[in-house]
Design a protein that fits this description.
- The chain is α+β, with helices and mostly antiparallel strands.
- The chain contains six helices and 28 strands.
- The chain has a 14-stranded mixed beta sheet with strand order 1-6-7-10-5-11-4-3-2-13-12-27-28-14. A four-stranded antiparallel beta sheet has the order 16-15-21-22, covered by helices on one side.
- Strand 3 and strand 4 form a beta hairpin.
- The longest helix is centred in the middle third of the chain and has 15 residues.
- The two termini are about 30 Å apart.
Length: about 475
Amino acid sequence: LLRKGNLSRDLEKRVIMMNPKSQTINLFPAVFVFLLLCAQPSQATKDSSKGQVKLQNHRVGSSVIFPVSGNVYPLGYYYVLLNIGNPPKLFDLDIDTGSDLTWVQCDAPCNGCTKPRDSQYKPNHNTLPCSHLLCSGLDLPQSKPCDDPEDQCDYEIGYSDHASSVGALVSDEFPLRLENGSTMHPHLTFGCGYDQQSPGPHPPPPTAGILGLGRGKVSISSQLSSLGVTKNVIVHCLSHNGKGGFLSIGDELVPSSGVTWTSLSLKPPSKNYKTGPAELLFDEKATGVKGVNFVFDSGSSYTYFNAEAYRAVLDLVRKDLKGKALKDTKEDKSLPVCWKDKKGLKSVHDVKKYFKTISLRFGGSQKNGQVFQIPPESYLIITEKGNVCLGILNGTEIGLENYNIIGDISFQGIMVIYDNEKQRIGWIPSDCDKLPNVDQDNGGDLSEEEAYPRGFGLIGELFTGTDASKNKKDGEL
């Protein structure tokens, strides 16, 4: 992991296409035969394309809503449960608006997987060929991904914390219950990850994989939209009190009024949910920091400012704390900047009076700008040691350069709307504990023993020393 203190993972994650004929993993003979058989385009894959044509002619325009489990601290991530396959099998997936590719741990067999074999995805003659539209949709402009269009479509995705997943693209049923009462079984494309690497000092999260909700063609929301199942709109609402929240694909939960909207950046084209420049305010007053672009990324536990913005915020916070009961502490390594009280703290509400609201004003002047407010409870955490720590981190220090990220900590108590139909992003304060029209008894328990603050979906080349191809291995499924 790309950590200093307790940092996070990924911003537009890099996807690398590889020629499967260039190298081959040495597998045991029996496994090798099985994988070779699976490499052939199958009848199931051909049938799935027919099913997709039918769906495209039957626009439903409903939404799918998932209960969300997780928290910023101590767990460090949010996840949903998703059925894949026929018969369906349940997988817990880390929700990530910072990357496109959905992938699950894959029994092919699997190297570096955290799930036992019976909890991994089992491929069944359903790999996709290089000629498939979504294989090129993984997009690397500099080279043709495969020598032969019938080659298996392999992927390698690298995250900025040096974690990576290598595997093959597959297609399978995703049984979905829509909010209009109908059920559907669209065939969607995702990654069958047979080689996961997590070289950082902390163990990988215990989830089965990543639910990619970025702006690219291979993201689940884009695929559902292209099939006419839902609109290409993503909504998430993360709870302040650790109850999780909810995630929606489709536009049914979008309020008809009260939402603050700002435009997504279109130049240069980005798979991230990047907004136009914003001005940084502290206690509703100008800080002098302007022209800051932000990425909205549910794949990051914390919020990251560039060095200038981070220093401005830290200086103002420390100025406010002079003469107050809170004192700096270096004993707590949960995050880089922490304070302690005379007695252990139990809640941010115990100390929020000492801190001011931070705001980002998008789109221009005071009169017509769109303001995203980050109150103290959306940038502070109380650690297990009873201290309060700053959940805004210095992104420049860990190689993000001028990228600024709004992460999960600042999404709490807010409905965030990623509207790919109108190329905009919106937010409105909400009670994220109330799950709209969905049975809440749908979650699962994951270990909270190890905090795993993830990070961003940024392209790997932007980060010094990040090279997922160091672990490059190709194999046939």
